[in-house]
Amino acid sequence: MEILSGFANALDPSNLIFVLMGVFVGICFGAVPGLDPTTGTALLIPITYAFSPVQALLFLTSLYLGGVFGGSITAILFKVPGSSEAVMTSLDGYPMTQRGEAGKALGIAIMSSSIGGTLAVIVTIVLSTQLAKVALQFGPAEYFALAVLGLSCVSSIGTNSQIKSLIGACVGLLLATVGIDAITGVTRFTFGSKSLLSGIAFVPAIIGLFAASEVFNKVSQKQELEAVENVDTEKVKTKLMSLKEILALKWTILRGSVIGTWIGILPGVGATTASIISYTQEVRFSKHPEKFGTGIQEGIAAPEAANNAAAVAAMIPLLSLGIPGSGTTAVLIGAFLIHGLKVGPLLFINNSDLVYSIFGGMFIANFVVVLGGLFAVRFFVKLVKIPYPIMATSIMSFCIIGSLALGDVNGVLLMFVFAVVGFFMGHYKYPTTPVILGLVLGPILETSLRRALMMTEYNFIDLLTRPITAVLLGLALISLLAPWIGKLISFAKDKTSNFPGH
Amino acid sequence: MMKRNISLVLIILLTISILIVGCGQQAKQETPKPAEEPKAEEPKTEEKPKVDEKYPSRTIEYIIGWGAGGGSDIFGRTINMPARRALEAQIIEINMPGGSSVTAMEHVLQQPADGYTVFGITPDILTNTILGRTETSYKDLTGIIQAHIDVGGISARAGAPYKTWQEFVDYAKANPGKVNFGGTGAASFDEVASAHLWTQAGLEVKYIPFEGSSEMHAALLGGHIDVMYEEPGVIIPMIQEGKIQPLLVVAEERVEALKDVQCVSDIGYEMPPMMWRGIAVKKGTPVEIVKKLEEEYTKALESSVYKSFAKDRMLDLVPGYLNSEGFDKLMEKEYKIYEEIMKKLGHVK
Q1: Is the confidence at residue A495, as pLDDT, over 80?
Q2: Which residues of chain B neighbour A443 with C-beta distances below 8 Å?
């Protein structure tokens, strides 16, 4: 029954206003490239000194949820993922915008985010403690298998050449080795550059490969500029999904939420990884995997449900074990501390009303995301109608600001290098997504594998025979080989149909 | 009508992002300012004492070598609240994460030695030099104060077959080369401090580095590692909970908050280096400015804001204050210790 008083608390106008504010501020933080929800939370913690503990935590958790959704707005409209959580959303979101279905794409993103987040809140309320215990079974070997699973879809997404995708993924993995090695502390491939010591920053790389290279691409094809204008002059309205459409995507959203919730609970991997793996699995489950990357609804629903679910679920280990499940929840510990609260299971006992108010607040925040999303999108969507030359200039300025925000001037340089590389990759029909997947998952993959091997005295058999690891790696193998298996089957079918009865 | 609305939205968005980026994050956008300012002050610099009397006459930049929300970040933002009042100056914190604070260090040393760039430091500035990540070293800095010592500890999962350091030593000796010893960072402070202890005990263990402490805590609770090096201040809720069993507090004497747990002198070992946080400026900063900063930051340590922060995070378990001179001497002493252990561990030749 405590949960009911928690809801009542969160709905109290003096608290509700902080939920509203949090979500709106979060959406803005999320939508602006280079400002991710984690940075937003960290920057705004000092102003919560003035709030009561409940208000502060409602504000910050709502901000986080809003931020994770916000990144998808710019990802869908301009292929500029506002935060790394939205990388996968741009794969199918942007092609939909190009077809003039921006409103629909945003509607799917809003609804999937909201439903994914809501389901995760329910799981958090009901199963928090039990799930946290299960999550502890995940050691380095399992993290490694999870990263492999995330990478395994590269052969299936958005391309007609598996070899080119695999080349891209390898390049990404290679780039991920730049910087100080997390296992030995040795500096690798920095060529004396100090700004490469912490590796190749995701944000400039993502913005360069996705957004800036797209601008180059458009500008290089003069006749297409007009075509884009034509498509977009017609009314672009956010269309929230009808119940029928939601039901059509129910399994996608459900799978996304479950995957997102689970990955959110694991410390060290967050909403970005959740959205990647959710997308991967969606490709694997799909009857038409080749359509992913061309602008289909599942491609938006899966990662969006997953990243919001992960954002919520990151609170599970925080509240039941005292271990933050993501970068942002780690920052949230600071917010607990400045209000004299210590995170961990004791919080449930000593401050149960606060914990349940947070749960209630998160539940409500997921609905506010719908409102805030509609509101924000109404402005953003108009930007699509702006003539492309002006739009391109604005996108480029956002790209530059975005890469400046996280690193230093070298970030901008990095962004332009990736933009040029991305442009030529597009020109020669090499997909850019595998590079990003390699770059994001590479560090998890490599360090977890090496950590796991150190622990088992370099015994691969021990590693592979752990049950969870074996299952995850098995799934990964199926995903990786899926396109070839599909070809083999259709080839066999062709053969039999060509030579009937002989 | 429509067009105006759209351009308005665009303009507002761009302005907001420029503002946020400018205020919140990076110094790069601020660089024009310092470049202008010294020029304006040039005539004055000739009569040195005058400038020093006026210090601080403009905004001081406090550089943090780590991301927002980390230990160094929160320390910096907390100490600067009273320091602003004491110094009667604006201080802005700038996060420059990257390369284990190398990026920040190199930035600080590119600024003029005028006391307007202050640097929050940790023992990483010593290890970075030893590991060859940067050509700069602690010798390029002048310490202002050492603010506190973050006491470390060795902990195990509750239910492990050892409840004290001695029991752990016996267990590790019975299983040579099998014990997984967790710590944050590779070739890092955690590894050096841990190795200092395990070599004294004559143990053969595997050091397993983690990028973040949360991952390591989960690995300990899940039984993937056997023990870990961690500051008790971070895991005190889990200790009180009975989920984590502290084996040893890495301090000369027992601490009040964990008085049942053995300390280093109880087991008769030599003390390993300790984790400290402090404040420094570029070497060559006028003595008067160093003195002024030392005085005011020392005062800031006495403020109630800082004291309650230190209490919450258990940063006041052992006295950790050193003045400018003492801090410089400590860095010199510890540099040698780190170098020796890093060589033993095979991180440097």
Answers
A1: no
A2: 211
